Amino acid sequence: MIRLAAIALILAGVSAPAMAAQEVTYGPAPEWLMPTLEPVAPDRRQGAIAVLARDVQIRLDADGQHMYEATDYLVQTAEGLAIGNLQIVWNPAAGGPTVHAVNIVRDGEVIDVLAQEGFRIFQREGGLEQAFLDGLLTASLQVPGLRVGDRLQFVLTSHVKDPTFGDQPFGLMAMPALPSAGSYRSALSWEEGHAPRWLATPDIAGQVQQNAGGIVLRLDQPGQYSPPDNAPLRFSPARMIEYSAFADWQDVSARIYPLFAHRAVLPEGSELANDAARILRNYASEADRARAALRLVQDQVRYVFVGLDGGNCTPASVADTWARRYGDCKAKTVMLMALLHAMDIPAEAVLVNQSVGASDMVAHFLPSPGQFDHVLVRALVDGRHVWLDGTRHGDLRLSEVPPDGIREFLPLRAEGSGLETLPYHPPAEPLTITLREYDATAGIDQLSRLRMRQIYRGVEAVQMRAGLEALPPDMLDQVLRRLVGGEGAWAELERLDWSFNEEYAALVIEAEGLDDLEWDEADDYSITSFAIPMAGFNPPPRRQRPPQQDRSLPYANDPLRFPCYVTTIRLPAITARQGWTHSADAMNVEIGGVAYWRMADLENGELRTVMSSRTVRHEITAEEAAVANAAIPGFDNSQSWAYLRRNPETRSQRQIAVPGLTRVPAAGEVDWLADPSACRAP
């Protein structure tokens, strides 16, 4: 990839060849290259650096993949001098780089930088703080004497030989969305017998030229590309060519299957084998046994991504992972499968893409292992398929629905499997519930006592738990205070705590203190009033795109959206000639694939509201978006208010839009972890 501050070439491999590439080599460019790409004089040269020419050529042959990169930069400002920090990053277990040239061109003179300086190598483990152990090497060169107005030319070729997938190469060539004005070429060529399948995105498909031995795309001054606003992610890729030698998804599944199946075995007589036997003795049901195995993998093996020595795609053995007590999703999946198999519980590894919004995107790409970023376990427990993730510490639920809205997945099987796609299901439970209980009985214009609880579910809860557990006490207090609104949100914050409920995989933050309901002064209609916290909606967003974008495409919704807000207020006592009322009208409406729900009641001096918005359709058509836009002006986005009137109110204060539902639950009378159904319209 190209960065302004550095040029970095990532050579990612999965298994070590006989000779690891520990050094940068220097030499001439390969013979298979096309003629040099000549830069086109740009009609605009804005920014710190202009890319005059960028040439990427990939060659596939019996020796693997070779990627040639040549870039011609023009330094236009002092800030652009940072391009002189050249870096090459590679995996020495997979191959290495050969640098062909580093030149400065000044006033027509070519200065050979490599005649003065070479790349210096140092070990790089830059991802350790994110629990990444990848074994990458970095070579760095600070270009001496670079000046504003100079051209900097950097040319190199990388080689990757992957014994795991070496005879089935895959990859992509992509151009940045905002390229500098200049000449760009992406070329893919192959020796006879090594031709892959290839696919170009629709925006460039007509410009790709093909011959018997390869394809080439040439773009001059391509300008900025903006993905269509608010469209599903499958419409975002552009200026991209992907290639793959895999025949289909069954081919991918069958090729990766043995990497996991052959390692999902408990070492005979090992501590883990004894643990499996203990679980069998102590738990009678398959569900309890599966949870116990999952807890063991989550609790006893910490998460660390391992990309060393071919670990990018190949999981570590159960014995190795248990000995070092750390592993990534691959290692945890293999260990969990081994434990389940020892208990006669069928289980298989499943590849997924965790990116939110990409749940139906994989099928639009060519089949390859590169479309997935995570692996988990699908097991048959008590006759039902459940999903288990050894990396989600504390999440022991045996869910029949994949986590976090995942809809596409690839089971790994000996005979291979096709890509499976599930229909979209709206979130069944709120991902966040904010509960606020006010005791305002001290009187008007007095501070109210507030008890607040925030419930988080899903991957956010798991990640928050890990983060909070790692904080020292003083920082933990600061973070928790921010999560409940900060000091400015409270008149006085007296108690603050958090906990994690493993039964529901939910994180709960609790706070107590004093708060100001901000009582208003009297007017012609009311003695006083105040805005009801967490009881008013923002209007739905308009779905529209600028004229230069395709307005016929569908619009995407957040597939996981489901926040819920519950507010209960015990009001001050009043005289018989006074009356409380409110403006939190009932709502049960769907606009643009999002369901808005609100109910409220005021009874026996207690005001109760429940409000939520929930995605019920993950995307809508352009025609449906127009209907939704037309409904926005009539949407009730007014703040909900409570009023103390001078005369008693005779009308019912209950506002529920569903017949037969007669109770608005108070924040303190429901176990919202076990039963959050009040957050959802019946």
What would you say this structure looks like, in words?
This is DUF3857 domain-containing transglutaminase family protein. With 682 residues, the chain is an alpha+beta fold. It has 4 domains: 10-227, Immunoglobulin-like (Sandwich), CATH 2.60.40.3140; 250-421, C8orf32 fold, CATH 3.10.620; 448-515, no CATH class; 518-672, Jelly Rolls (Sandwich). 14% of the residues lie in helices and 33% in strands. Strands 2, 3, 4, 6, 7, 11, 13, 15 and 16 form a 9-stranded mixed sheet that branches. An 8-stranded mixed sheet has the order 28-29-27-26-32-36-35-34. The protein has a 5-stranded antiparallel sheet with strand order 23-22-21-24-25. Helix 3 runs antiparallel to helix 5 (329-342). The radius of gyration is 30 Å and the shape is globular. Mean pLDDT is 90; it is low at 1-20 and 126-131.
Element layout with pairings:
Elements: E1 10-11, E2 25-26, E3 49-61, E4 64-75, E5 85-90, E6 97-106, E7 109-112, E8 120-123, E9 132-133, E10 137-142, E11 151-160, E12 170-174, E13 183-190, E14 197-200, E15 209-211, E16 214-220, E17 240-244, H1 249-261, H2 271-282, H3 286-300, E18 302-303, E19 305-306, H4 318-324, E20 326-327, H5 329-342, E21 347-352, E22 374-381, E23 384-388, E24 408-411, E25 420-421, E26 432-439, E27 448-456, H6 458-469, H7 473-483, E28 492-501, E29 506-515, E30 526-531, E31 555-556, E32 563-570, E33 579-582, E34 587-591, E35 594-603, E36 606-615, E37 619-620, H8 622-631, E38 641-645
Parallel strand pairs: 1-5, 2-6, 3-13, 9-19, 18-20, 26-32
Antiparallel strand pairs: 3-4, 4-11, 5-10, 6-7, 6-11, 8-10, 12-17, 13-16, 14-17, 15-16, 21-22, 21-24, 22-23, 24-25, 26-27, 27-29, 28-29, 30-38, 31-37, 32-36, 33-38, 34-35, 35-36
Keywords: Signal
Domain DUF3857: 72-202
Signal peptide: 1-20
